[in-house]
Amino acid sequence: MKLIVAIVQDQDLYLLREDLAKKDFRMTKLSSSGGFLKIGNSTLLIGVEDERLDECLQIIEEDCKSRQADSSLLNISAPVDSYIPYPVEVTIGGATVFVLDVDKYFRF
Ligand code: 2BA
Fold first, then answer.
1. Residues contacting residue 20 through CB under 8 Å, at least 6 positions apart
2. Ligand 1 near 47 CB (within 6 A)
3. Using a 6 Å cutoff on CB, does residue 35 contact ligand 1?
C-alpha cells in the first residue's frame, strides 16, 4: 500500500475530490498553506493499494492545472511585525505529489 500526499490548489479541489470519490479512492483533506506564497492550498492524504497507484496519480495529474500566481501575493517580513507586498510572478502547480510506502494500515 502507498500513501499519496498531494498538495493541490483550492480551485482544483472540488473536481479532484469528485473524480477520486467516483473511483472509490478514500482520502482526507487537510487545509494547508505554502511556505513561499503563504496562501491557502489543500493537502490530500490518499491511501491506495499498489496496483491502483498509477490510476490515482493520473486523476490528480488530469484535474490539477498550473496557474500564474497573483503577483501581489508575496510579502516580505519587515521589522516590527509588518509585511510589505512586492511583485512576483510564479507558476503554481498542477499538484505537488509525494508517494510514501505504508508499513501498516489499520481501520479500527
Ligand atoms: P508555495 O510554497 O506557496 O509555492 C508556490 C509556488 O511558488 C511554487 O509552486 C513555485 O512555483 C514557487 N516557489 C516556491 N518556492 C520558491 C522559491 N524558494 N523560489 C522561487 N519560487 C518558489 P509549486 O512548486 O507548484 O508548489 C505549490 C505548493 O506545493 C507550494 O506552495 C507548497 O505548499 C507545496 N510544495 C511544493 N514543493 C514542496 C516541497 N518540496 N515540500 C513540501 N511542500 C511543497
1. 27, 44, 46, 56, 59
2. no
3. yes
